[in-house]
Specification:
Length: 509
């Protein structure tokens, strides 16, 4: 602490120590550093001391480690525990973030993932030692195949967007192998931003189609833009308005009529898994976000897994290396003439694969062993979203007010009169103790507020959330200044988001 000036020594003790102990500004470990302080001390050695230089040679040794924080063990522990307590997390509260499927991650997932026989494996060990790990991956692939109807899967992609990249690359490889002259991909205007980004990365031109008046992609709109140069379509189903695409089968037929590939963005698969098999809809390639549909922790950039499934004739294009069961043994297929190649280190985010498989199996299987109880999960997710829609529909404008899937999208249209916008409502929700919902997405809904409860919340939690949303709608009418000035009950007042981007402050002090 730089507390030597007369002014600070006059400050009452309580104000001086309350800061470092309880301040929302957690100091960096570098600032807490005291020369010579260590995390632990051991009794003096009885054997002769061997220095690093003697053991490894002086060319590898550093003379000093510059700027390394010197702190005690309890300072380190308290620092990180305090930081962890600043996080809003699914383990501390309801997280209505639409499109992100922030469902509760059951602790059994963590228990299984940390079993030392699994967590201490190394992917470079000989294959004979990795058989149990391979069996987990193949079992997961089999389950994903059974719920999607797509026979081939890769577990390599580490995120949804990464899966899209793999899927569209396979689309590209398929057309190249057939000598098809294809230049563009159809992407509805309700798509997640990653869809057009992916197509652009592969080198395709984007052909947008407008969402129809009820929130669905219309066959007529696709007909207007389809021609022989269309490589395929990327459709999110359920779409980002939270609706099941009504015309998907017809659209798939249309795409197939020009030898196009139907790519389904299955990030929102959690609404339909166990109920609809995408292959029955005409889907040729899809990715699934394990970190959304099948729990597993996510947020803040990871970790994740975005496996990609493909129809039979596209299997040779899947990335290698890939694990397969041959007889009683699992083998790693490393070469495949038509494969798009490797897209990640080793075999993907294995610990996420373990968690997703654990989640699926822990739901239980039907008596005949053919199916897991995933259907119950998706039905509950849809029921919860519709419950919220029904409770809020008189208080907030719902642009596409139809039976929804896993999420419901409101708008700020009825609150705008008092100068209130979606952002204000989201900030006010923080005062009520919630992480805000997803805002301003999808782009086609002005002032969108996208709410996804997932199946993992109780009716009491949903009711309290709806009560809070209704209370905020009342405040918008009665005391709009309260909403306009929110948040006022959290650690931070409203941050200047633009300034944080233009002048990032990455250092304390
Ligand atoms: C979340 C999401 C993605 C991207 O997934 P990441 O794992 O964040 O890369 C893509 N499409 C849709 C519809 C999504 O909801």
């Amino acid at each position: 602490m730089k507390e030597t000036s007369a002014a600070t020594t006059m400050t009452p003790l309580v104000d001086r120590i309350a800061g470092p102990l309880l301040s929302p500004e957690e100091p960096l470990l570098f600032e807490k550093s005291q020369p010579g302080r260590v995390g632990y001390s051991l009794p003096p050695l009885k054997t002769p001391r061997v220095t690093f230089e003697q053991a490894f040679g002086s060319e590898l040794a550093r003379e000093a480690i510059v700027g390394f924080p010197e702190v005690s063990e309890n300072e380190v522990v308290r620092h990180f525990v305090r930081l962890s307590q600043k996080n809003y997390s699914i383990d501390t509260g309801f997280y209505p973030l639409g499109s992100c499927t922030m469902k509760y991650n059951p602790k059994i997932n963590e228990e299984i993932a940390k079993i030392s026989e699994l967590s201490s494996l190394h992917p470079l060990w000989p294959e004979r030692f990795l058989q149990p790990a391979f069996s987990i991956q193949v079992e997961l692939q089999k389950l994903l195949s059974s719920v999607t109807g797509l026979p081939g899967f890769t577990l390599q992609p580490n995120a949804g967007a990464h899966g899209e990249y793999v899927g569209i690359k396979i689309m590209h490889a398929y057309h190249a192998a057939k000598g098809n002259k294809k230049t563009k991909v159809i992407v509805p205007d309700s798509a997640h931003g990653t869809n057009p980004a992916t197509c652009t990365m592969i080198g395709y031109e984007i052909v947008p189609v407008k969402t129809g008046p009820k929130g669905y992609v219309e066959v007529e709109e696709v007909k207007k833009v389809i021609d022989s140069e269309v490589a395929g379509i990327m459709m999110t189903n359920p779409n980002t308005c939270g609706l099941f695409e009504q015309n998907i089968v017809e659209i798939a037929k249309l795409i197939h009529s020009v030898d196009g590939i139907f790519y389904m963005d299955g990030a929102n698969f959690n609404a339909i898994v166990g109920i609809v098999k995408p292959s029955d809809l005409g889907v040729d390639i899809m990715h699934i976000n394990l970190h959304k549909t099948f729990s597993t922790p996510h947020g803040g950039g990871g970790p994740g897994a975005g496996p990609v499934g493909v129809r039979e004739d596209l299997i040779p294009y899947l990335p290698v290396p890939r694990v397969e069961k041959r007889g009683e043994r699992y083998v790693v297929v490393r070469e495949e003439a038509q494969s798009i190649g490797r897209v990640t280190g080793y075999l993907g985010n294995f610990s996420i694969h373990i968690r997703a498989l654990t989640y699926m199996l822990s739901l239980g299987r039907e008596r005949d062993g053919t199916d897991t109880y995933l259907k119950r999960m998706s039905t509950a997710a849809v029921l919860n979203a519709n419950y919220i829609r029904e409770r809020l529909k008189k208080h907030y404008h719902i642009p596409y007010n139809d039976v929804c899937m896993h999420e419901v999208v409101l708008s700020d249209e009825w609150q705008q009169a008092g100068g209130i916008k979606t952002l204000n409502i989201a900030k006010r929700l923080m005062d009520y103790g919630y992480h805000p919902m997803t805002v301003y997405f999808p782009l086609i809904i002005h002032g969108a507020m996208m709410i996804e409860p997932t199946e993992s919340e109780t009716k009491e939690t949903l009711d309290l959330f709806c009560d809070s949303m209704i209370a905020i709608a009342e405040e918008c009418k009665q005391t709009p200044e309260v909403v306009l000035n929110a948040p006022t009950r959290v650690n931070r007042e409203r941050v200047d988001e633009l300034r944080a981007q233009k002048q990032p402050k990455l250092r304390w002090g």
